[in-house]
Design goal:
This is AB hydrolase-1 domain-containing protein. This protein is of the alpha/beta class. The protein is about 40% helix and about 15% strand. It folds into two domains: about 20-45; about 50-195 and about 200-225 and about 285-370, Rossmann fold (3-Layer(aba) Sandwich), CATH 3.40.50.1820. The protein has an eight-stranded mixed β-sheet with strand order 2-1-4-3-5-6-7-8, with helices on both faces. The termini are far apart. The relative contact order is 0.11.
């Protein structure tokens, strides 16, 4: 039998006593609410720019209807704050402006902040391509057509204010942002008729000032034929409502609280007439306005695929996990009958998910080459 090196009741100098261990645990337990709150607060401050766009993407239309201060306003952003067009003070050179638009539940930071391993396209293009980069933030819970009209108005103001600095325009949109760009193109070429008691505008009837200066459009992971996730959500909601018992009606009502922006993703509604149509919620073949590419503009349709190889049915439907390759390229941009000089280029980036399209060296190299 081995004798203990210390008498009974005494503790090793390398081992705290039971009372000391108990008191330490008690202090930690008592301070946990304070330290936990501090951790949550610091985390919330660090990721504050994420929470507000997510809230707006989910219920931004409701916030805007209530004039809630948390509803994001459509605006250009600089140094983390809204900036008016008149306050940009853009120099005349370089005369090429690249405007970035984020997707659903995103903000302008997705184009700017990253690490050395995740290149962010805005600062790199400004540094290496010598272009002016502007960043838009919008309430992604609003109808796509509402944001499209606001983008049309902003680009018109930008060109009118800085005619020398905006001789060439390039628009880059990720996901929903690409649909907003296409919607703005529609409203830029289909202006509202002037009232009878007002003189007609001096510009050509179907020519917004910025459309004539638009050179290229880059669509990154854009659901040009709609989102399969929203289509499935809508179908599930309809089925639950048809069952027509209290629990399923409740679930259907909860699902239907998603924002108008999310609902527009179902079939990529770009024009207000589409979602205002009484048949807009039809499961099969809802009315949808054809919005073709703008003439004279180079379109670059870039989509991601989780798979190594393209061409499979899974790749066509699931694509980058959120946008299928079939939807990303779409019928307009993927029409095999398009002539070679149509101004449309499509490319699939294998083994890329929806988010990695925003921070991929190959995607950036493509942007750098064509911007």
């Amino acid at each position: 039998m081995t004798d203990s090196a210390f008498p009974s009741g005494e503790s090793s100098p390398d081992r705290p006593s039971r009372w000391r261990r108990f008191s330490t645990a008690a202090r930690r337990a008592a301070s946990f609410p304070v330290t936990g709150f501090d951790f949550l607060y610091r985390t919330g401050q660090a990721y504050r720019h994420f929470t507000l766009p997510i809230l707006n993407g989910a219920i931004g239309d409701q916030l805007a209807a209530r004039h809630d201060h948390r509803a994001i306003r459509f605006s250009l952003r600089r140094y983390g704050a809204d900036v008016a067009v008149a306050d940009l003070q853009l120099p005349a050179a370089p005369a090429k402006i690249v405007v970035f638009l984020h997707g659903l539940m995103g903000d302008e930071m997705i184009w700017q902040s990253g690490t050395s391993d995740t290149p962010r396209y805005g600062p790199l293009l400004a540094q290496q391509a010598g272009v002016q980069c502007l960043y838009v933030r919008f309430n992604s819970g609003l109808h796509i057509s509402e944001n499209g009209q606001l983008l049309h108005q902003l680009l018109t103001e930008l060109v009118d204010t800085y005619p020398a600095a905006t001789r060439e325009l390039v628009l880059v949109g990720h996901s929903m942002g690409g649909l907003v760009i296409r919607s703005a193109g529609y409203y830029g070429t289909h202006p509202a008729p002037a009232p009878a008691d007002q003189p007609a505008p001096g510009r050509p009837e179907n020519d917004a000032p910025w459309v004539a200066r638009l050179r290229s459009v880059f669509l990154l992971g854009v659901p040009n034929e709609g989102s399969f996730l929203e289509q499935n959500s809508h179908f599930t909601s309809v089925v639950l409502r048809k069952v027509n018992v209290a629990p399923t009606r409740f679930l259907s009502n909860v699902m239907d609280q998603r924002s108008n922006g999310i609902k527009d993703l179902r079939h990529a509604f770009l024009v207000a007439h589409d979602w205002q149509n009484p048949h807009a919620n039809d499961i099969l073949l809802p009315p949808r306005t054809l919005v073709p590419p703008l003439p004279g503009v180079q379109y670059h349709v870039l989509v991601g695929s989780l798979l190594k190889t393209a061409g499979s049915a899974l790749n066509h439907y699931f694509g980058d996990g959120l946008v299928g390759v079939g939807s990303g390229i779409g019928r307009l941009f993927g029409d095999p009958a398009l002539p070679p000089d149509s101004g449309i280029r499509t490319r699939v980036f294998p083994q890329q998910h929806h988010g990695s399209l925003l921070s991929n060296a190959e995607v950036y190299a493509y942007l750098r080459e064509w911007v």
